[in-house]
User: Which sequence fits this backbone?
C-alpha cells in the first residue's frame, strides 16, 4: 500500500469521529472556556477544523514560516465550524489521493523567521502536526463538551452516553 493510501484511510476513518464531535457543539456556548488560560470553545473548534490545512501545506510547500501568521475565518455557529472542517478535509483528501511516496518522503521545514523549528519528512508532518495534533485537541474538545453536559458520541467505542 502506498503511503498516501494509508494516510488517506486514516484521515477518512478519523474525520468521521471528529465530525460527530464537532456537530455536538452547542451554539449558545461558543464563547465558553473551562479556565482563563484555556481556549474558548469556538477557538478550539476552529483550530480542530483548520488542522487539515497542514496536510495541504506539507504536500504543496517545502516549508512554512510561522511569522507570516494565518488568516483564520470567523466562526459564528457550529455550522460554520463543520463547514470549515468539511472544506479542509475534502481538500486534504484530494491532495492525498494524488501525492506520490517520493513527495511524502521529501523534507519539509517549519520556521519562525530565521529560526528553524524542525525539519521532517512530509509524511511525518502530516502524521504529527495534522493527525496527532487533531486527535489531541479532539480529546480536549470532548472534555469541554462533557463539562457542558453535552452527551458524547462513540469515537473508538461506546461512551457513557451511548451504550
Assistant:
Amino acid at each position: 500500500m502506498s503511503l498516501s493510501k494509508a494516510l488517506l484511510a486514516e484521515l477518512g476513518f478519523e474525520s468521521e469521529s471528529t465530525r460527530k464531535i464537532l456537530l455536538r457543539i452547542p451554539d449558545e456556548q461558543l464563547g465558553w472556556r473551562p479556565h482563563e488560560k484555556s481556549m474558548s470553545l469556538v477557538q478550539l473548534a476552529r483550530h480542530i477544523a483548520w488542522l487539515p490545512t497542514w496536510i495541504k501545506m506539507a504536500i504543496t510547500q517545502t516549508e512554512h514560516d510561522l511569522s507570516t501568521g494565518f488568516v483564520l475565518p470567523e466562526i459564528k455557529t457550529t455550522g460554520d465550524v463543520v463547514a470549515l472542517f468539511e472544506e479542509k478535509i475534502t481538500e486534504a483528501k484530494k491532495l492525498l489521493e494524488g501525492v506520490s511516496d517520493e513527495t511524502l518522503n521529501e523534507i519539509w521545514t517549519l520556521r519562525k523567521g530565521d529560526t528553524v523549528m524542525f525539519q521532517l519528512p512530509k509524511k511525518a508532518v502530516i502524521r504529527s502536526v495534522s493527525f496527532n495534533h487533531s486527535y489531541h485537541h479532539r480529546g480536549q474538545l470532548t472534555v469541554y463538551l462533557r463539562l457542558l453536559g453535552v452527551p458524547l458520541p462513540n469515537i473508538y467505542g461506546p461512551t457513557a452516553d451511548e451504550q
The chain has six helices and three strands.
